[in-house]
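Our preliminary data section would be incomplete without showing what the modeling component actually yields. Below, a chain of 200 amino acids is followed by its predicted structure, encoded as tokens that our downstream tools consume directly.
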Amino acid sequence: MKLKSFRVTNYKSIIDSGECRLSDNDNITVLAGQNESGKSSILQALRDFEKEEIDPDSLRDDVSIPTIICVYDDIKEDVKDENLFEDIEIAESVKKIITELKELKIIKSLDNEGNLTVSFDTNLKAEITRVLETENDLISKRNEEIKAGTVIDEPDTPWEIEETLDEIIEELIRYTPNIIFFDDFCDLLPDQILISDIKT
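Predicted structure:
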């Protein structure tokens, strides 16, 4: 999986970074701007996204809620991994949706209690929810047939939709690339260089 783009809103001085796409040609992306224009804040927001904890100093004075969105692509190989979803139970119909994803959008933002919440983009969440609701309808009908004695089998337990969504996103996050924030203010060059030292 590869980070394709990100967007940061209501974080420190950043009201909305807009979609920031990473280079897919040479794998080098440059953040350029004047001092105090928000370059470091962008990187700190990505750091907070990774550690799933927003530094209280990053909150704005207004009541706005910081949100960090990362979009990943090149996910087909990861979702085909045999270990994916091995620790959780998941409906085959949901697994099919995930294996056919072209990109994965993960949203992290603060809730009213100051906790960082993690979610899919609303379209994917709605699609998985719809599929799980359909699965639950089928389970309910089958359980009624079992209860009526027309089918001999053990009843199935319906899917807990919110819990299942949380498990799926937690599993997919394991496959996202790690973001490492390196912060160093050491100057590479000394404040002064003697002419006699220029040769060396």
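Residues 45 and 134 are 38 Å apart (CA to CA). The chain has five helices and six strands. Preliminary results of this kind motivate Aim 1 of the renewal.
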